[in-house]
Amino acid sequence: MIDLHYSATPNGQKIAIMLEEIGAPFRVIPYDIFNGDQLTAEFGQINPNHKLPAIVDHAPGGGGDPVTVFESGAILQYLAEKSGRFLAPSGAPRAATLSWLTWQVAGLGPMGGQASHFLRYAPAGQDYAVQRYTREVKRLQDVLEKRLEKSAYVAGDDYSIADMAIWPGRASAFVMGMGLGDHPATHRWFEVIRERPAVARAMGREDLAAPAKYIGRHQKLDEAEWSNMFGDANHAAVRGD
Ligand SMILES: N[C@@H](CCC(=O)N[C@@H](CS)C(=O)NCC(=O)O)C(=O)O
What we know:
- This is Thiol:disulfide oxidoreductase.
- This protein is an alpha+beta fold.
- About 55% of the residues lie in helices and about 5% in strands.
- Helix 1 links the parallel strand 1 and strand 2 (about 25-30).
- Helix 1 runs parallel beside helix 3 (about 70-85), helix 1 packs across helix 8 and helix 4 runs antiparallel to helix 5.
- Bound molecules: glutathione.
- Glutathione binds near residues 33, 52 and 71.
């Protein structure tokens, strides 16, 4: 049994999709990040960065103590290696998958996160920041489109953990008005993945669904919620105050 410490955002959805794909039994432990559930000392033992997702694998391959993994890219790689699926064991296919996986977790993901922050959470009037991040996301979306014009899946002919890392964020980009409109190859890829039974199961599960308050075009956090997400409470959790 794997514990999935989960908040219903694209980073959490990546892992839910992978767990459904490999048929691993898992228990969802939900966190309301506006409420600050991620800021407890107890969760800091699982992820010292106090962010979701994280997993605890109570039955690691080869036995032994439970294994804790945080960072969505590391979790996907761990589960791929444990199951022997969606990541080639060596060579060019493995290198391609890890390249695109890292491209998402180090590039598209964080840039999308900043675009979302300045478009949806920040006070109005941050034009330079909005432009900087939305333009960079657009550039990265063009990179993906060019790749998918030539390749069925991002890492080549086979569906992999790199696709699972990218797909949920492309789904949620709609709330930023950055949908799939002028990216036909990405649209084709998006629909093929959406129709996978494991993806449909993960996206359809009630215990994994995003609450309405996470998906508004303009977010209005109260003072405590803002502190939990971006302010003093968020920073105090790391220091252990
Ligand atoms: N690089 C991390 C990003 C994790 C992340 O930013 N998680 C967000 C939800 S998508 C979170 O926990 N936010 C709450 C907070 O920042 O306090 C990953 O890929 O797992």
